[in-house]
Amino acid sequence: MQRSCEICHQTKPAVKRPKTGQAICKPCFYNCIEEEVHYTIQSTNLFHRGETIAIGASGGKDSTVLIHLLHLLNQKYDYGLNLHLLAVDEGIKGYRDDSLEAVKRNQIKYSLPLTIVSYEELYGWSMDKIVGKIGLTNNCTYCGVFRRQALDKGAKMIGAEKIVTGHNADDIAETVLMNFLRGDHFRLGKCTEIITGEEGNMPRYKPLKYLYEKEIVLYAHFLKLDYFSTECVYSPNAYRGFAREFLKELEKVCPRAVLDIIHSGEMLDVNTNPPDKLTCQRCGGVSSNKLCKACLLLDKLNE
Ligand SMILES: Nc1ncnc2c1ncn2[C@@H]1O[C@H](COP(=O)(O)OP(=O)(O)OP(=O)(O)O)[C@@H](O)[C@H]1O
């Protein structure tokens, strides 16, 4: 490790940045992370003064760092945003109940309003009940589809213009790999965009899309942020797990690999014509068929 921080040349370095390999002190590390996210927000014109932003708050490290950074940058650079925490309670005992406690503590710490919507309330089914009925096959599909719609519904209740999520650079690079391996050209063309879901009525924004997961963990650890770090008790997404392992191996050899994969995805010119957009005849949500995926899955559960 260097004798002095490679940025300020004054204090002893405390960390070797996973993204750049620079040996830097803690204050310079914080500054790099904060300025990088500020740059991403400014250069992509992500927000506008007066907007209400629903922050998808799961209680995990990424969304906790997202809350911390947006709260800090909103004050420091006077973005003029109304920040609102939005948590979805999927109804998973021993997982989401604990992480929601972290969200509630952060609501108090940052003095931000919090809205919690639950699968039980919205659909009459918690994930615990769903797994009780269908077992551990396909349960992640239910959870993903319901969460997407629950976030939309919660954001509408709040009166938010947009939802921001804590997806980081590793998440996006993994998604590029997965879509490529699956030959899913529609998703491949879309998945690196900082704004997705504009074709629906509640777009998703990803201000952390260039932050490395390792740096998010370090930032949260150094600043002693309050988050919950256990994996979901139900089976993880095996396909994503494979892409994740591959990316981690690649990163050991070449730390830039994560960013390089994102940039490759950004440069791809693939057919991204969306399927025709319809309105679900039952719930009014966005759909590419007569009934949206959430309603179809609910029908299966209620059979
Ligand atoms: N139950 C939830 N309630 C609200 N937002 C959620 C929820 N689950 C996920 N999100 C949003 O989607 C993002 C990506 O979720 P994912 O399930 O990939 O978790 P993750 O990468 O472990 O993120 P985190 O560390 O924030 O939990 C989160 O950062 C958060 O913004």
Ligands present: adenosine-5'-triphosphate
SSE pattern, N- to C-terminal? EEHEHEHEHHHEHHEEHHHEEH
Query: What is the first-to-last residue Cα distance?
Result: 62 Å
Oligomer: single chain
Number of helices: 12
**Mean model confidence by pLDDT:** 94
What is the percent of helical residues?
40-55%
The total beta strand count reads: 10
- Quote the CATH topology of the largest domain: Rossmann fold
CATH architecture label of the largest domain: 3-Layer(aba) Sandwich
Helices and strands in order:
Layout: E1 15-16, E2 23-24, H1 26-43, E3 52-56, H2 61-76, E4 82-89, H3 96-110, E5 114-118, H4 119-123, H5 127-134, H6 139-158, E6 162-164, H7 169-182, H8 185-190, E7 195-196, E8 204-205, H9 213-222, H10 238-253, H11 257-267, E9 278-279, E10 286-287, H12 293-302
Parallel strand pairs: 3-4, 3-6, 4-5, 6-8
Antiparallel strand pairs: 1-2, 7-8, 9-10
Helix pairs in contact: 1-9, 2-9, 7-10, 7-11
Keywords: ATP-binding, Cytoplasm, Nucleotide-binding, RNA-binding, Transferase, tRNA processing, tRNA-binding
Organism: Stentor coeruleus
InterPro entries: CTU1-like_ATP-bd (IPR056369), CTU1_C (IPR032442), Ncs6/Tuc1/Ctu1 (IPR000541), Rossmann-like_a/b/a_fold (IPR014729), TilS/TtcA_N (IPR011063), tRNA_thiolation_TtcA_Ctu1 (IPR035107), UPF0021_CS (IPR020554)
